[in-house]
Design brief:
Layout (H helix, E strand, L loop, with lengths): L1 H10 L13 E10 L2 E15 L6 E8 L2 E8 L5 E8 L30 H18 L1
Antiparallel strand pairs: 1-2, 1-5, 2-3, 3-4
Length: 137
C-alpha cells in the first residue's frame, strides 16, 4: 500500500492549484486539441462537488448553457487543465450541492461570501493601539 502512494506522489505534477470547495464559482482553463492545433477553452460554473484524494481526485462543475444545465467532471491533476481561477466564494452548508440541479431562477443562486467591511474602519483600531503603545513608552 505504501508503494502505491509513493508512485502516485511521483507521478503527480506539483501544480499550484487554488483551494476551492463546493459552492464556489470557478473558471477552468482547459486545453483542447483539434487536429494538430491546441487551444484553451474556458469553462465557468459552480462547483457541485469535490471527490477523491491523491491522483484520482476530481471535481464537478455545473453551468447553464442556453437554458440547459451542463455538468462536467474534471480530474484535478489532469495535464489538460491549464489553470483554475476562483471568481466567487459561495456560502453553502453541504459538501455536495446536488439540490442546485432542481432549483430554478432565484432559488438557484448561491450567496457570496462577504469579507470584513471597510478597510479604513478595520485599520483605525490598529492605529489607535499603536498610538497608545507609543505614548506609554
Amino acid at each position: 500500500m505504501n508503494l502505491i502512494k509513493y508512485v502516485e506522489e511521483q507521478l503527480l505534477s506539483k501544480k499550484a492549484l487554488p483551494s476551492f470547495k463546493a459552492g464556489d464559482t470557478i473558471t477552468v482553463n482547459y486545453k483542447i486539441k483539434e487536429g494538430d492545433k491546441e487551444r484553451i477553452q474556458q469553462y465557468q460554473g459552480i462547483v457541485i462537488q469535490r471527490r477523491g484524494a491523491g491522483a484520482s481526485a476530481s471535481f464537478t462543475v455545473r453551468k447553464i448553457s442556453n437554458g440547459v444545465g451542463v455538468e462536467r467532471v474534471f480530474p484535478l491533476f489532469s495535464p489538460f487543465i491549464d489553470s483554475i481561477d476562483i471568481n466567487k466564494e459561495g456560502v453553502v452548508r453541504r459538501a455536495r450541492i446536488y439540490y442546485i440541479r432542481n432549483a430554478k431562477g432565484k432559488k438557484a443562486r448561491i450567496e457570496e461570501k462577504q469579507y470584513g467591511g471597510n478597510e479604513e474602519v478595520a485599520a483605525a483600531p490598529a492605529a489607535e493601539k499603536q498610538a497608545v503603545a507609543t505614548e506609554k513608552v
